[in-house]
């Protein structure tokens, strides 16, 4: 699956303004290296159906085997080892002379800083090796997924070094002279090996993080299907960032791959579309999704047209930016591999008549692409009416309850049909904008 930065931003996967993000929900890593690996995994999900199944199997394994995770490899361990091996370049000769003649007691007095740095660093290196030894014990367990087995065998191979047992065997009785020798050899021989072990551990940390988040949020693992025929069936689907979300049921099937959403502003259309996008992305990470049930085809990517931005420096208007994003969408749809396309209120940067004509033309064209899943939301009731007899389109809407006194209430429930609710003027009244503007300050 390939997703660009615009899609990740539209779906609030990562945020830069301090607001809650989907990444915050699934980041249960114990190290910064694991956190970086998780970010990389989100930015570049598995590229094939088979590789996605392997990742999902691995995450399922960790979700059922929390107790196998080593407790002695923490972020401080990896940070310390980075410092330790970065300073290895300054070590050019083995220890000799006076340092070897001094006892541990005198070393603590005359070379206190160096003594404790070596002792502390080697203890962290021992923790890395011990934790990795604990991990490779999993190899002999039944039912270990292939992807995890390959990673653990890589770790096992890296532990095949003469110094590993020596370092894990260091105790308070190990003499300072012996520590000096071990330190010299470790810094000269184990830097690249330790780096590879850390990278392997980081990948495991990322997979385990998604397993922990899946269990913690009580999400379910989706049923993953090959690309054809394209399918998306969900029950009890909801947006994970909401405190009190409304659940949705939706099904694209039997050749009906286009969903047309209508409803008043603020009625729930955008939230619903983001729920679809987030669940699709999480499913393609191999982890659980916020739903009661989800069956989804392997997708090449999620394409969003939601928060288009103009570019003042390039002299591009908002409308032109919308057109360029739609052009990019059309280019991706030329490829047969299925995408999920989410389009929210297209062509907001032009007048109503232009928006109607442009939206209608785009909808007409999109109906020619049957290999992709597409959702278009609009508050232009007239657009939906133009296609109301088309059997290829699924019509769903969000209904707003309106009272005689000008009030309104959102149910946020998805129901079949086309909505012509308009509440813009009511919102202006309720927020007091009309009253404020009716007071002339010059009077």
Question: How would you characterize the overall build of this protein?
Answer:
With 443 residues, this protein is α/β, with parallel strands linked by helices. The strands form 2 sheets. Strands 6-7-8-4-9-10 form a 6-stranded mixed beta sheet, sandwiched between helices. The protein is built from 18 helices and 10 strands. The protein folds into 2 domains: 189 residues, MutS, DNA mismatch repair protein, Chain A, domain 3 (Orthogonal Bundle); 216 residues, P-loop containing nucleotide triphosphate hydrolases (Rossmann fold), CATH 3.40.50. Helix 3 crosses helix 12 and helix 7 packs across helix 8. The chain starts with a helix and ends in a 5-residue tail after the last helix.
Short description:
This protein has 443 residues and is α/β, with parallel strands linked by helices. 48% of the residues lie in helices and 14% in strands. Helix 5 (75-86) packs antiparallel against helix 12 (191-216).
Write the layout of secondary structure elements.
Layout: H1 5-10, H2 22-26, H3 32-43, H4 49-64, H5 75-86, H6 98-101, H7 104-110, H8 112-136, H9 146-158, H10 162-168, H11 176-189, H12 191-216, E1 223-225, E2 232-237, E3 248-252, E4 258-263, H13 269-283, E5 293-297, E6 301-305, H14 318-333, E7 339-344, H15 352-366, E8 373-378, H16 381-386, E9 393-402, E10 408-416, H17 424-430, H18 433-438
Parallel strand pairs: 1-5, 4-8, 4-9, 6-7, 7-8
Antiparallel strand pairs: 2-3, 2-5, 9-10
Helix pairs in contact: 3-12, 4-12, 5-8, 5-12, 7-8, 8-9, 8-11, 9-12
């Amino acid at each position: 699956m390939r997703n660009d930065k615009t899609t990740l931003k539209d779906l609030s996967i990562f945020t830069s303004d301090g607001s809650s993000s989907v990444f915050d929900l699934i980041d249960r890593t114990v190290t910064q290296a694991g956190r970086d690996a998780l970010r990389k995994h989100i930015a570049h999900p598995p590229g094939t159906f088979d590789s996605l199944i392997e990742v999902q199997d691995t995450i399922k394994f960790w979700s059922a085997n929390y107790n196998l995770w080593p407790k002695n490899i923490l972020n401080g361990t990896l940070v310390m080892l980075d410092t330790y091996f970065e300073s290895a370049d300054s070590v050019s000769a083995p220890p000799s002379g006076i340092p070897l003649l001094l006892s541990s007691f005198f070393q603590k007095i005359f070379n206190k800083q160096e003594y404790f740095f070596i002792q502390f660093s080697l203890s962290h290196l021992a923790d890395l090796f011990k934790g990795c030894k604990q991990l490779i014990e999993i190899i002999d367990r039944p039912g270990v997924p292939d992807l995890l087995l390959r990673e653990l065998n890589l770790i096992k191979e890296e532990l095949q070094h003469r110094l590993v047992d020596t370092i894990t065997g260091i105790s308070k009785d190990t003499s300072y002279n012996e520590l000096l020798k071990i330190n010299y050899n470790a810094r000269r021989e184990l830097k690249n090996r330790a780096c590879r072990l850390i990278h392997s551990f980081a990948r495991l940390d990322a997979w385990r993080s998604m397993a922990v988040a899946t269990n913690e949020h009580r999400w379910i693992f989706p049923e993953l299907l090959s690309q054809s025929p394209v399918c998306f069936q969900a029950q009890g689907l909801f947006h994970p960032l909401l405190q009190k979300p409304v659940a949705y049921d939706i099904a694209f099937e039997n050749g009906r791959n286009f969903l047309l959403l209508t409803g008043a502003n603020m009625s729930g259309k955008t939230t619903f579309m983001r729920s679809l996008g987030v669940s699709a992305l999480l499913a393609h990470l191999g982890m659980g999704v916020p739903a009661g049930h989800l069956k989804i085809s392997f997708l090449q990517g999620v394409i969003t047209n939601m928060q288009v931005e103009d570019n003042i420096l390039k002299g591009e208007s908002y409308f032109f930016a919308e057109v360029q994003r739609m052009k990019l969408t059309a280019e991706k749809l030329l490829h047969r591999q299925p995408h999920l396309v989410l389009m929210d209120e297209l062509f907001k940067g032009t007048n109503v008549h232009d928006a109607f004509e442009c939206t209608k033309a785009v909808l007409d064209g999109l109906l020619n692409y049957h290999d992709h899943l597409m959702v278009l939301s609009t508050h232009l009731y007239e657009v939906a009416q133009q296609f109301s007899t088309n059997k290829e389109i699924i019509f769903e809407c969000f209904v707003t309850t309106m009272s005689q006194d000008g009030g309104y209430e959102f149910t946020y429930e998805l129901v079949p049909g086309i909505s012509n609710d308009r509440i813009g003027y009511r919102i202006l009244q309720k927020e007091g904008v009309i009253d404020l503007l009716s007071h002339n300050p010059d009077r």
